[in-house]
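#dry-run=false #mode=assembly
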Amino acid sequence: MASFYQWFHRMGSPRWFYEKSGRWLPWLAAAAFLLIGTGLIWGLVFAPEDARQGNSFRIIYIHVPAAFLALAGYYVMAVAGAIGLIWKMKLADMVMKSAAPLGAALTFVALFTGAVWGKPTWGTYWVWDARITSMLVLLFLYLGVMALQHAYNSLDTAARASALLALVGTVNIPIIYKSVDWWYTLHQPATIKLTGAPSMHPDMFRPLLLMILGFYAFYALVLILNTRAEILHRERRTGWVQSLSE
Amino acid sequence: MHPVRKQRLIFVLFIITAASTAVALMSYALRQNINLFFAPSQIVAGEAPVGVRIRVGGMVVEDSFKRAADSLDASFVLTDGPGQTRVYFSGILPDLFAEGEAAVAAGVLAEDGSFMASEVLAKHDENYTPPEVADAMKKAHEANQ
Amino acid sequence: MPSTANRTNRSAAGQGTGFGAILIRDLLIAFRHRGEMANPLIFFVMVGTLIPLAVGPDPDRLSQLAAGIIWVMALLASLLSIDGLFHSDFEDGSLEQLLVCPKPLWLLVLAKILAHWLVTGLPLTLFSPVLGLMLSLPAKGYGTLVLGLALGTAALSLIGAIGAALTVAIRKGGLLLSLIVMPLYMPVLIFGASSVQQAVQGVSASGTLAILGALLAFSLLLAPFASAGALKVGFNG
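#status=ok
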């Protein structure tokens, strides 16, 4: 337990994180590149066409991982925010600040690819159905957190206020999702379920799994890069940062 | 009472009251059919209101699909096992619509028990049954036994 | 510990939790500025006039849209007024006094929210049948409309208070407040508007109204504490 706390507190030091994460970056980059590269080629070229949707289903290989990470990214942001609120850990504040634009971008990618996919499948770019609308609300939540981040001059206040908003959003996401779901259901069902066998054919599913893992690696990579940039920006006056540039 | 203890008491009472109200109201609401989704067997049993926009879901019965030769009028039968409802629809059915697969129709129930759909939705995955349909079929199945 | 207990003991003695005091104070202030109290109502009616001008005066079409429009307008009116919830107190420094006062802050915040609802949400609710008439809402919808708005505007005030507390220290926080709060308003809007629609169609709206009530109870659980936390954050920074 004691060693865990030690580790936890050391993690809180931006400098320690900066030095440590520098060593992770090549591995993460390689993993992301390999997984996404293999997944894309496998999914776009070798996976069989869908019996009903033809080739247009292949956009799933971008759409689903992006949607996964958009939602997971919100929880990453909220957990980082909570850690920052409770333990007043600066690193958590910075992670949270970096996670917001990244999550918003992924949400946008999920919405955009969904619209492109919707045209051949449903005959329209935009349908007001539960999942699309929930994703749109998620984008709004991200944008709200980002806007609040920028509204405060003090970094600490900005971090705490937006962490609080992110946490309130976390409590609300299931409610918003449920109410929008009740409001209208039209979207195709969840093809990947956490329990039970996936209802996709394995030949189509395996590349998707690779893409999801690849997106996770990519997410971690970009989040760490963003956080490192934020660390350098905030600690630019400290000795250790200045010695980096020498 | 000691003021600090009194504050704590108010806090605890407040949380308990609000939480139990929320739970009680939700459980009441869940017992109502709020999204107006009915299975064919419920319509046969007369549970669905007439003249109100509702949704019916079930499997499209094999060989029940009829299309008029000179117009877009079509009709088919939805079933959840014990009950059957004939659905009338005028318009272009979705590509994924097929006999033996799940479909959801939104529209108005007529006095004679037939359903006038203004919208027909088909689900795109072969393995998939919409959760509402699956639920309704399971319930009907249990009621049968 | 003993020193805190003593301090609490002294100041809290004989004055309850401060809930009543704040409630009465805020109601008095609102009463002395009666003109301001009417603003959200006037806004509510004016937008109600704009809709037929834009959509056309056809009663059939209006009656279809009425439930949704009234709810969206009530939401906007509530959003406009929630900005002022903590603002004047922030400017004259009394908000700081509330923060350092040893009473439980969430109760004081709850009192302010209740006062705010009594002077904005409640009049809006009572006034909504007039709007229903203007937009030719079918007769079956009025009871549900009033009941739903009573529950819904209270929930909106509570949720909005979180946003108001988060943005109180920011100059020109009004637009930001709407940006933050609107996604959180959506469930209330969905269930509120559909309860009226169900009533108009002749289906029992009791289930939907119960969900609105549950949303209200849930926001009671969340909002006073979140807003109290947000006020502290805004001041310490």
